[in-house]
Specification:
This protein is an alpha+beta fold. It has a domain at 28-68. The chain is 18% helix and 35% strand. It has one helix at residues 12-23; strands spanning 31-36, 38-41, 46-49, 55-59, 62-66. The strands form 2 sheets. Strands 1-4-5 form a 3-stranded antiparallel β-sheet, with no helix packed on it. Strands 2-3 form a two-stranded antiparallel sheet. A hairpin with a 4-residue loop joins strand 2 and strand 3. The longest helix has 12 residues, at 12-23. The radius of gyration is 15 Å and the shape is flat.
């Protein structure tokens, strides 16, 4: 699996250009699954979906992890 780390940029136009350059090959591809990270809850003694980060999207043979 290849990891692409996006560099920080402050300009809105630079952000748009960076996203377009990194992900243009995925435009039009079908998202066939998604998964949320899970976190252990000591209180419930179980695993729960971690609704904040990250979200994993499976697109073709690639997995994109989105964190914010």
């Amino acid at each position: 699996m290849q990891t692409i780390i996006m560099k920080y940029t402050s300009s809105k136009n630079e952000k748009i250009e960076l996203i377009q350059n990194k992900f243009s090959s995925l435009i039009g591809e079908k998202i066939y699954s998604y998964e949320l990270a899970q976190i252990w809850s000591d209180e419930d003694s179980s695993w729960d979906n971690w609704m904040d980060v990250p979200l994993f999207l499976s697109i073709g043979d690639k997995i994109i992890s989105i964190s914010w």
